[in-house]
């Protein structure tokens, strides 16, 4: 997994910021701050991002292909251009039935008093 921020004040073609890697999930940080992060991820076919719970809301947007976002055991199929907000303190995982790329945005303010 890569974790280098991309250049600022420079135009980027999002789907070209990251390549697919055989039999894996690749990621790259677009913006990484203590107050939140924006990352781009590329999933090879049949890969799963394991179940997790975030202390903060997570906005997921599909930028190429389609995926399944399973939130609290409810499947949400998403295709290119669609997004979903995973609520804070909620179990979720991400499943790739075929290759896809996504943007994940986490903003870490507003929940300080509610973190577990």
Would you mind describing this structure in some detail?
The protein is mostly beta strands and 116 residues long. The chain is 0% helix and 52% strand. It is globular.
The backbone outline, from C-alpha atoms, is: globular
Low-confidence stretches: none
The biggest sheet, with number of strands, parallel, antiparallel or mixed sense and barrel status, is: 8 strands, antiparallel
Note the gap between the termini: 27 Å
Overall helicity: under 10%
Radius of gyration: 14 Å
Q: How much strand content do the residues show? A: over 45%
Write the layout of secondary structure elements.
Elements: E1 25-33, E2 36-43, E3 48-53, E4 58-71, E5 74-79, E6 83-86, E7 91-95, E8 100-107
Antiparallel strand pairs: 1-2, 2-8, 3-7, 4-5, 4-6, 4-7, 4-8
Task: Summarize this entry quickly.
It is built from no helices and eight strands.
Entry keywords:
116 residues, 8-stranded antiparallel β-sheet, globular
């Amino acid at each position: 997994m890569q974790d280098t921020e991309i250049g600022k004040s420079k135009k980027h073609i999002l789907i070209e910021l990251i390549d697919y890697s055989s039999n894996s999930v690749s990621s790259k940080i677009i913006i990484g701050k203590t107050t939140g992060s924006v990352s781009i991820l590329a999933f090879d076919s049949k890969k799963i991002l394991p179940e997790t719970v975030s202390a903060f809301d997570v906005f997921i947007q599909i930028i190429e292909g389609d995926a399944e976002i399973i939130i609290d055991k409810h499947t949400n199929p998403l295709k290119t251009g669609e997004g979903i907000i995973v609520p804070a303190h909620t179990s979720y995982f991400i499943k790739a039935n075929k290759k896809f790329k996504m943007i994940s945005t986490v903003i870490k303010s507003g929940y300080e008093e509610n973190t577990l």
